[in-house]
Design goal:
366 residues, globular, chitin binding, 10 helices, TIM Barrel, single chain, 8-stranded mixed beta barrel, alpha/beta, Chitinase_II/V-like_cat
Length: 366
């Protein structure tokens, strides 16, 4: 999964038909509009550029995990390199939008070092020390001014890890509730990222524990196809696909049928695209054969939301001058583009009835 910077925020819109978890105190007309924002030490993005008025929740990615080998204890930490940025993040985005809630995410799917540490946390050998992880996460969230915590680890690989995940969420919620009473402050939100379906091969997420303990679940309904894994240009986040289970309609139905409340599902939309190098420039429709990712300057074949808009402006399909120039990138690349952020959010409406896929309400393009 590609977390890049503010230009490729993941924008979440809730599938909402009634009140969410009581701690949120939202009515049935409210949308969750949340984005992940990742700080990159090598290429620090500008926090000032975030238009936080577009969101109800912003999620800072990612807190780090520190493993004490002498005591077998795991702690959530903010590194010295990130300390000032985290402090600035909350003050800046909340100054622009005082009603904004911020959430600290722990994990991240494309960070190998953190991923391996997460596996240690969830392993039987070190899981008994989870209380240090839980306590430190709450302490860090409070000390930096966050309103909640997010668990971003979507690849449990064994039934034991699934069982441990359920126990972790149970204990985490109890600790959050207790801390709120002790400090006499609003309870921290607890959210989690999940795959587009509740299954990981032959394993299933712990639905009952997630249902009881999470305020909502971020459904990562994207990355169905990537140029690094398939040569066919394919829809990255298809809403429907009659020929495959790799689509959002199928995944959301699966979550609901598994017992997870539809009102606590928050649908993930990618604000980035993928770039394929086409096998034949003349065959440039979705489904056309490619030879893999775009040029080497594209990380894993990804292109950010803003870059896509700029490219489409430069190389508009049907532009007479552009056709005469026949630029190399236009002739060889298949690029999926998006509307402006505000337009994209306005293109979705809540239908207060069962949707085509059998769940409701459904977000459909007008």
């Amino acid at each position: 999964m590609a977390f890049k910077d503010i230009a490729i925020l993941l924008f979440f819109i809730t599938i909402l038909q009634s009140q969410l978890h009581k701690s949120i105190a939202l009515d049935n007309q409210t949308w969750i509009k949340a984005g992940y924002w990742q700080y990159d030490t090598l290429n620090p993005p500008n926090i000032q550029s975030i238009n936080s008025t577009l969101y109800t929740h912003l999620i800072y990615g990612f807190a780090e995990l520190t493993f004490n080998t002498s005591t077998d204890q795991m702690f959530v930490t903010i590194s010295d390199d990130h300390d000032e940025q985290v402090k600035n993040f909350n003050s800046i985005v909340k100054r622009k939008n005082p009603s904004l809630k911020t959430i600290l995410s722990i994990g991240g799917t494309n960070q190998s070092s953190i991923s391996s540490t997460m596996y240690l946390l969830m392993s039987n050998a070190y899981f008994p020390g989870r209380k240090y992880f839980i306590e430190s996460s709450i302490t860090i969230a409070r000390s930096y001014g966050f309103d909640g915590l997010d668990f971003c680890w979507i690849w449990p690989s064994s039934s034991q890890e699934i069982s441990n995940l359920a126990t972790l969420l149970d204990d985490w919620r109890v600790a959050i509730d207790l801390e709120s009473k002790q400090v006499k402050k609003p309870r921290l939100l607890l959210t989690m990222a999940g795959k587009y379906t509740p299954w990981i091969e032959d394993l299933s997420f712990p639905i009952e524990s997630m249902r009881k303990n999470l305020d909502w679940l971020h459904v990562f309904a994207f990355d169905y196809y990537e140029p690094g894994t398939t040569n066919n240009t394919s829809p990255v986040a298809a809403l429907y696909d009659p020929n495959s289970d790799l689509n959002t309609d199928y995944g959301i139905n699966a979550w609901i049928k598994s017992g997870f409340p539809s009102q606590n599902l928050v649908l993930g939309l990618p604000f980035y695209g993928y770039v394929w190098t086409l096998l034949s420039p003349k065959n440039n429709q979705i489904g056309a054969m490619g030879t893999g990712p775009g040029p080497k300057d594209y990380s894993y074949g990804t292109e950010a939301f803003t870059s896509t808009n700029e490219r489409m402006e430069r190389n508009k399909i049907g532009n007479e001058n552009n056709e005469e120039k026949g630029s190399e990138e236009t002739r060889t690349l298949q690029i999926f583009s998006f509307d402006e952020m505000k337009e994209a959010t306005n293109n979705f409406a809540v239908e207060n009835e069962l949707g085509k896929g059998g769940y409701g309400p459904v977000y459909k393009v007008r």
